[in-house]
Design brief:
Blueprint lengths: L2 H8 L5 H18 L3 H7 L4 H9 L18 H9 L1
Amino acid sequence: MSSFDEWRRNSPYYNESHEELSNGLRKFVEREAMPNVEKWEEAGIVPREFHRKAGEAGIFALGFPRNMAGYQRSRRFSSARARR
């Protein structure tokens, strides 16, 4: 466990929704990205299929305004996304 994880668990600003987002991102990356990273690095490109899956999972919409089909989450949500 990182010091960030420990801080997050004790922070009054983070709640279950932040934890759900963090866990969902972790699972997505473990399932969709990690098995392919070396292949993508060799090819020099991340395939569109990955971007499509990330879009379907709502990962690309995080931080975008609602009028652009985004979620416009707080900075803490963006921080949880960046940590994963």
